[in-house]
Amino acid sequence: MIPPPFDYHAPGTLDEALALLGELDDAKVMSGGQSLLPMLKLRLATPANVVDIGRIPGLDAIAESDGHLRIGALVTETALEEDAAVAARYPILLDTARVIADPLVRNRATVCGNVAHGDPANDHPATMIALRAAMVATGPDGERRIGVDDFFHGLFMTALEPGEILTRIDIPAPGPRSAGAYLKLERKVGDYAVAGAAVQLSLDDDGAVTRAGIGLTNLGFAPIRATAAEQALTGARLVERGGLRGAIRRVRDAIANAPDADDAIAAASQAAADATDPVADRRGSVEYKRNMARVLTGRAVRQALARAVAGSAGTPDTGAGG
Amino acid sequence: MARHTVTVTVNGEAHSREVESRLLLVHLIRDELALTGTHIGCDTTHCGACTVLVDGVPTKSCTVLAVQADGAEIGTVEGLAGADGMSALQEGFMQEHGLQCGFCTPGMLMTGTALLAANPDPSEAEIREAISGNLCRCTGYVNIVKAVEYAAAKMAGADADAPADAADAPAA
């Protein structure tokens, strides 16, 4: 399949790229091109101009600074998978990268592109919702930060203005006793999700949830924040008293023995399912997808909890209390 | 529409062509440079038959513009065999019956080559993960995994500088 004719621009600096976006009519920004090129080939997109930001130096940085993980526009999914800080402190991002397309696509596909594309079937949007990330857009007037809840406007529509580039995603560093998980049901490797659930939890010293973030993939025309599900978890004690102190031999018991856990997780899972608005397609019926949202949310909560407990058991400050 | 001059080094040989913006890398390789070992399968970023190395990184060449590859080193299946014959991985595919129809094989070989360069002793799980973007409809993957393992073992033997009888002799 041959893409429609367009002109190609490869600016060498961000300023050049922004100038091009200001001058050109009907221009589309490309980073890894792993979503845009298939759309061009299928002629679902027919921009007159493609501005390839892939050669701009300095946009491929991934680093923790000032309490944030900062992911530059050209950080690939493969780079995310291989990053030590991500592996240590952001397991939800590792979960997510690993289920996006396949390793060959991930060699070129970028995290920011996955988000900027505005496709509710993409996986990172739900993760970013759970992590309460900020999108940093650079335009002719400089940078502006867009909270993830204001970023996704609908199918392939985001808060990015035509002259803007998503240059970075800033993710607040999770505090102690925090962890997340992303679970995706897919028919085969590389497919879009039948349903996906991203959960990020923070616990207090007694195992009660102080903050919950829950995002859902491919269950509506935009990525969904399951607000009622977050509320159902917040304040609930999901780990038994003392379960976060001392050596945890059996993480599952620490969760199973918490009086609130089963009820709160069931309520949150149902609330997540109720927040969805899926369409029936070859991946399943509306009822099936809703039910999968419920199941995946519950499993992701438990996995996030297990990780939070296991992580806390290894930290000296909580170990001293046991 | 505007045309651009693209210079790529393919299997060590530099080529320049004036191309349309929309020309895909796989078409540059096949149609302009007449290297038809790189196949086009699904043409929708799924099957991996078009996999080539771009600066050493396995990439689906149906989903890269030729202009994006300007200045890059491209590796295709035609570049795998050296003066002393097939690469260890190519030999592995032959010895372990890693192909039937052969359509996916060039892509499998390029992905496998990159895997072994990064990880000379991959586990079966690592091999299966690495080739999960390359679809084979004949083998069920079992013999492809064995082919990669064969190559890893042969390369390890060669690296150890041992006599490596088994590795040098074409298996009877």
Number of helices of chain B: 6
Radius of gyration of chain A: 20 Å
Largest interface: A-B, 28 and 30 residues
Give the ordered list of helices and strands of chain A.
EHEHEEEHHHHHHEEEEEEEEEHHHHH
Instruction: Sketch the major β-sheet of chain B.
Output: 5 strands, mixed
In N-to-C order, the SSE pattern of chain B is EEHEEEHHHHH
Bulk shape of chain A: globular
Q: Quick one: how many beta strands of chain A?
A: 14
| Helix residue percentage of chain A | 25-40%
Main sheet record of chain A: 5 strands, antiparallel
Quaternary assembly: heterodimer
Q: Beta fraction of the residues of chain B?
A: 15-25%
Overall pLDDT confidence of chain A? 93
- Helix fraction of chain B, binned, reads 25-40%
Determine the number of helices of chain A (DSSP H or I, runs of at least 4 residues): 13
Kindly summarize this structure in a few lines.
Helices cover 35% and strands 23% of the residues of chain A.
Task: Pick out its properties.
heterodimer, A: 322 residues, alpha+beta, five-stranded antiparallel sheet, 14 strands, B: alpha+beta, five-stranded mixed sheet, 5 strands, globular, disordered C terminus
Please describe what this structure looks like.
The complex is a heterodimer of chains A (322) and B (172). Chain A has helices at residues 14-23, 36-41, 77-82, 84-89, 91-98, 103-106, 111-116, 124-131, 227-233, 251-256, 261-274, 286-313, 316-319, and strands at 7-9, 27-30, 49-52, 62-65, 68-72, 134-139, 142-147, 152-154, 157-158, 165-172, 178-185, 195-203, 209-217, 224-225. Chain A is an alpha+beta fold and 322 residues long. Chain A has a five-stranded antiparallel β-sheet with strand order 4-5-10-6-7. Chain A has a four-stranded antiparallel β-sheet with strand order 11-12-13-14, with helices on both faces. A three-stranded parallel β-sheet of chain A has the order 1-3-2, covered by helices on one side. In chain A, helix 9 (227-233) packs antiparallel against helix 11 (261-274). Chain B is of the alpha+beta class and 172 residues long. In chain B, helix 2 packs across helix 5. The chains are: A alpha+beta (322), B alpha+beta (172). At the A-B interface, helix 2 and helix 6 of A face strand 4 of B.
